[in-house]
Amino acid sequence: QVQLVESGGGLVQAGGSLRLSCTSSRSIVTLNVGGWYRQAPGKQRELVATITSGGTIMYADSAKGRFTISKDNAKNTVYLQMNDLKSEDTAVYYCSFKFFTLPTSWGQGTQVTVAS
């Protein structure tokens, strides 16, 4: 079982920035896809961004131009840099890693609150 530990959430003013981190207990050299999702109160969980082992990146429309996903294989960590945050970005953010031959693993979630 792969353990994912998230950090970096918090309270920020609109227009501010946060960087979320998701560190894996397993080397991410064999990571197939790493991603960030979010779930706002009363809403379904939605995809924010993904990054593949080859570095292919995909963003939800709401994240394009403001968020950047990246990974550091040496630190077994995937990051989500969030800039120009808006109140509608308020949610619990979850990381999700899919390793080759293993089931998908999820982090415990980190709260991001953007005050307008």
Describe it for me?
It is globular and about 40 Å long. It has 116 residues and is mainly beta. Strands 2, 4, 5, 6, 9, 10 and 11 form a 7-stranded mixed beta sheet that branches. It has a 4-stranded antiparallel beta sheet with strand order 1-3-8-7, with no helix packed on it. The protein starts with a strand and ends with a strand. It contains no helices and 11 strands.
Would you summarize the structure shown here?
The protein is mainly β and 116 residues long.
Annotation field: number of helices: 0
What overall form do the CA principal axes indicate?
globular
C-alpha Rg (nearest Å): 13 Å
- Helix-strand pattern, N to C? EEEEEEEEEEE
Give the termini distance in whole angstroms.
39 Å
Low-confidence stretches: none
Major sheet: 7 strands, mixed
Structural class: mainly beta
The averaged pLDDT comes out at 96
DSSP strand count = 11
Q: Classify the beta-strand content into a percent band.
A: over 45%
**How would you classify the quaternary structure?**
single chain
Helix content: under 10%
Name the descriptors:
single chain; 116 residues; mainly beta; 7-stranded mixed β-sheet; 4-stranded antiparallel β-sheet; 11 strands; globular
Structural topology:
Blueprint: E1 4-7, E2 10-13, E3 18-24, E4 31-39, E5 46-52, E6 57-59, E7 67-72, E8 77-82, E9 91-99, E10 105-106, E11 110-115
Parallel strand pairs: 2-11
Antiparallel strand pairs: 1-3, 3-8, 4-5, 4-9, 5-6, 7-8, 9-10, 9-11
